[in-house]
C-alpha cells in the first residue's frame, strides 16, 4: 500500500486546527471508492433514485430546491440521458433536454443505497483522516451534470469532508463572520441548513448591497482530492464537468448539542408561523428534503429533549467524564473536539493546500459578526430621528433585508398614501436570524443552569 503524506493521527490533528477550508492531496490514492464513476455505479445501483432538475439560467435569484422539478430514474437512465444530447428523449428525462436542464441526485445516504452491498461501505476510508470506524455508512453520495448546484448555505452542525471522485466541482466559500453579507433566511425551511438569499454567481447588488463586502474563497476540487469545510462556513457548489460524482461526510462536533437547541427553536418558530392560515403562507416554504410539518406539540417536545441533552452533556463535561485524555482522542460520545489553547503549525505544502481568498472585498466591515445588527440599529435610529421631522421631509427607507414594498392601499397603510407591508417571511428573517437564535439559545441554557444550580 502506498504511503500517505500524513498518518491518520497527523491528519486528524490538522483538521482539528484548521480554521479555513483546505484541500488534501494524495490521501485517497488507494481508496476503492475512486472507481465509483457513474458508469461503475450504474451497474451497482439498479433501483431508481430521485433526481432534482433545474433549468440552466443566469438568474439573479438563487434556484432553491422548492423551485426545481423532480423525477425518479436509474443511474443507467441518467447516463443515457447525458450521452444522447442530440437524440430524441425517452424515459423519465424525456421532458428535460440536457442542454437546457441539469440534473442532481444529491444527499443520497450510502447506508441506504448499498444496504444489500455492505462491503462497499469499506470503499470510503475516512479512518485515513483519523476518524476510526467512519466509512461509507456515515457518508452521502452526490451525482450531477454540468451546472448542477447546491444553493449557498451553511450547515448548522459539525464540519465537512468532501471526496471528489469523478469530474470537477467549483466551491465558493465564505467565512462565518460574513453571515451579515449573505442575507440569511430559513425559508425554504430545512433542518440544519441556513440558506442565503443571494445568488453568489450573479448577485443583485442593489437588493443585497452588503454582499460587496463578502470574502469569497474559491477552489475547483479535482478527482482524488478531499476538501475540508470548517464549521459554519457558507458554501455554494456547482458541477463544472459533464458528469460529477462525490462523497461527503459530516463530522459531529462537541458544539452541536447547543446548535441542536437552536435548530429545535428555529423549527418551532418557523412551523408555528408558516402553518398558520394566512394569505401570505401559500408559498412553498418547506424544503422537499423534509418529511412534513410537525405539530407544535411535537416541536416543543423536540426542543425540550434538545435542551435536556445539552444540559446532560455540559454536566458530564463538568464532572470530567467526557474530557479528553490527550489531543485527537475521541471522548465517550465519539464527538470531534476542537482544540482551545494548544498551538500548532498547519503543514501547508504539496499535500495540503489552503483555499485562498479569491479577491479582496471593496470594503471590510470592522464590526465583523456584529456588523449586521450594528447597521440595523444604526439605520433604525436614523429612521426614528427622521420621524421627528415634518411629514414632507420624512421618507421611509426601503430595507434590503426586509424586501418590503410600498404600495398605496396595501395592508397596514393609512389613508395618507404609501405604506409598508411586512410578510410572515419578512418577519422570520429577523426572528430566526442565526444571531438571534444563538442569543435566545444561550438565554435558554443560562436559565436552565440557574434552575438546576
TrEMBL record:
**InterPro entries, A to Z:** Cupin_8, JmjC_dom
What Pfam families does the record point to? Cupin_8
Q: Where is the JmjC domain?
A: 102-266
Recorded hits in PROSITE patterns, A to Z, give: JMJC
Q: Where is the composition biased (Basic and acidic residues)?
A: 386-396
Quick check: keyword Methyltransferase in the entry? no
Chain segments carrying region Disordered = 383-419
Q: Does the keyword Cytoplasm apply?
A: yes
Entry-linked Gene3D superfamilies: Cupin
Primary localization class, coarse: cytoplasm
List where in the cell it is found: Cytoplasm
Family annotation (SMART domains) = JmjC (SM00558)
What biological function has been recorded for the protein in this entry? May play a role in cellular stress response.
Query: What protein does this entry describe?
Result: Hspb associated protein 1
Q: What is the lineage of its organism?
A: Eukaryota, Metazoa, Chordata, Craniata, Vertebrata
Amino acid at each position: 500500500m502506498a504511503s500517505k503524506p500524513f498518518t491518520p493521527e497527523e491528519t486528524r490533528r490538522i483538521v482539528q486546527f484548521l480554521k479555513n477550508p483546505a484541500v488534501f492531496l494524495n490521501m485517497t490514492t488507494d481508496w476503492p471508492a475512486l472507481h465509483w464513476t457513474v458508469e461503475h455505479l450504474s451497474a451497482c445501483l439498479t433501483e431508481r433514485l430521485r433526481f432534482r432538475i433545474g433549468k440552466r439560467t443566469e438568474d439573479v435569484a438563487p434556484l432553491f430546491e422548492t423551485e426545481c422539478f423532480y423525477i425518479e430514474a436509474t443511474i443507467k437512465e441518467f447516463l443515457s440521458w447525458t450521452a444522447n444530447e442530440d437524440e430524441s428523449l425517452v424515459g423519465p428525462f424525456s421532458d428535460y433536454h440536457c442542454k437546457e436542464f441539469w440534473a442532481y441526485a444529491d444527499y443520497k445516504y450510502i447506508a441506504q443505497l448499498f444496504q444489500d452491498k455492505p462491503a462497499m461501505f469499506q470503499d470510503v476510508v475516512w479512518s485515513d483522516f483519523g476518524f476510526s470506524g467512519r466509512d461509507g455508512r456515515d457518508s452521502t453520495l452526490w451525482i450531477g451534470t454540468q451546472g448542477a448546484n447546491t444553493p449557498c448555505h451553511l450547515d448548522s452542525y459539525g464540519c465537512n469532508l468532501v471526496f471528489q471522485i469523478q469530474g470537477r466541482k467549483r466551491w465558493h466559500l465564505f467565512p462565518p463572520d460574513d453571515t451579515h453579507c449573505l442575507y440569511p433566511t430559513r425559508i425554504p425551511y430545512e433542518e440544519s441548513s441556513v440558506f442565503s438569499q443571494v445568488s453568489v454567481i450573479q448577485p443583485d447588488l442593489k437588493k443585497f448591497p452588503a454582499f460587496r463586502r463578502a470574502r469569497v474563497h474559491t477552489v475547483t476540487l479535482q478527482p482524488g482530492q478531499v476538501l475540508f469545510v470548517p464549521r459554519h462556513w457558507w458554501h455554494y457548489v456547482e458541477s463544472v464537468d459533464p458528469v460529477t460524482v462525490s462523497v461527503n461526510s459530516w463530522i459531529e462536533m462537541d458544539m452541536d448539542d447547543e446548535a441542536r437547541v437552536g435548530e429545535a427553536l428555529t423549527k418551532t418558530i418557523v412551523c408555528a408561523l408558516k402553518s398558520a392560515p394566512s394569505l401570505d403562507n401559500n408559498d412553498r416554504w418547506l424544503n422537499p428534503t423534509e418529511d412534513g410539518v410537525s405539530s407544535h406539540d411535537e416541536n416543543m417536545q423536540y426542543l425540550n429533549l434538545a435542551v435536556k441533552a445539552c444540559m446532560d452533556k455540559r454536566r458530564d463535561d463538568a464532572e470530567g467524564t467526557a474530557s479528553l485524555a490527550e489531543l485527537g482522542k475521541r471522548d465517550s460520545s465519539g464527538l470531534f473536539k476542537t482544540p482551545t489553547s494548544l498551538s500548532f503549525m498547519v503543514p501547508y505544502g504539496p499535500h495540503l493546500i489552503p483555499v485562498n481568498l479569491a479577491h479582496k472585498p471593496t470594503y471590510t466591515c470592522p464590526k465583523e459578526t456584529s456588523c449586521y445588527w450594528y447597521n440595523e440599529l444604526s439605520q433604525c435610529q436614523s429612521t426614528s430621528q427622521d420621524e421627528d421631522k415634518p411629514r414632507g421631509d420624512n421618507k421611509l427607507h426601503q430595507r434590503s433585508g426586509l424586501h418590503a414594498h410600498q404600495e398605496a392601499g396595501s395592508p397596514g397603510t393609512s389613508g395618507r398614501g404609501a405604506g409598508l407591508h411586512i410578510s410572515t417571511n419578512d418577519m422570520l428573517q429577523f426572528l430566526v436570524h442565526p444571531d438571534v437564535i444563538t442569543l435566545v439559545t444561550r438565554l435558554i441554557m443560562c436559565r436552565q443552569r440557574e434552575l438546576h444550580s
